[in-house]
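User: Is it possible to get a 3D structure for a protein together with its bound compound? The compound here is zinc ion. I've pasted both below.
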Amino acid sequence: MTRLALLLASLLVALSAAACGGAGASPAAGGPVRVVTTITILADMVAQVGGDHVTVESLVRKGGEVHTFDPTPADVRRVTEARLIVRNGLGLDDWLTHLIRNSGSTAPIVVAGEDLPGVTYLGGKPGGGAVNPHVWLNAAYGALYADRIAESLAAVDPAHAADYRAGAAAYGETLRGIDADAKGRLGAIPEANRTVISFHDAFPYFAAAYGLTIDGTIVDAPGQDPSASQVAALVDLVRAKGIKAIFAEAQFNDDLARAIGRETGATVVSDLYTDTLGDAPVDTYAGMLRADVDKVVAALGGG
Ligand SMILES: [Zn+2]
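Assistant: Yes, that's possible. Here is the predicted structure of the complex:
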């Protein structure tokens, strides 16, 4: 569509919403605030903070892959119907920009992961310049996401502002409790077991918070499989540095991690949840964090 056609389309959406007087499925409708997020982790945060005042849907579905996501026409419609859109930012979900343009949506967009007060942002690769987007894998930082989501919900639905803030406060307590528990249990992992490699570069915030060292990744980026020589170099790295574990992730095939594990004797920690939720007990962000901590402790020692 041309820019003019898009403008007209968005104008028509706005006019039809006005004509309906807030009835039906228009973005201005009463009832629960309709929220669309890019990933399931953000959708759960919105549900925890918003409770009965919201309905929320993630564009990338449970088990899906955000970095290589390819939106469909149905996703355009979901965005059109949203009263609030929540994304992570930091390069994780840049495809949303195009999707919003196609939808003509004028709903406010919350960038939940950027410029959070008190977050130490980390580079994507050792020595790399780009900021790594996986900020939520520090549970205490997750509480900051919840606060920002609460303020955004309060802005679109001021009648329930107090409930959103109370929801974020209670949820933040839960997340800070998980953070303290993770610090204690992962802090008890023997020093010699603290170096790991991961499938993709999802763990720098987790590692910085809980005392692990990530010495490499199997893929440079999701969708970019390593060459045979890159795999051989990883095997050499694991041996040379005495790396104890390989973190495999639920949304990616773990064949390569297992092959490197067999070759080197490193422990493969399978089914860690990083960018997506799964089935119970990892169907919530809090459940995902707890399960990840349990799996890492079981593989590497600790409390
Ligand atoms: Zn990722």
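Confidence is low (pLDDT under 50) at residues 1-26. The beta strands are 33-37, 54-58, 84-87, 109-111, 195-198, 213-217, 245-249, 267-272.
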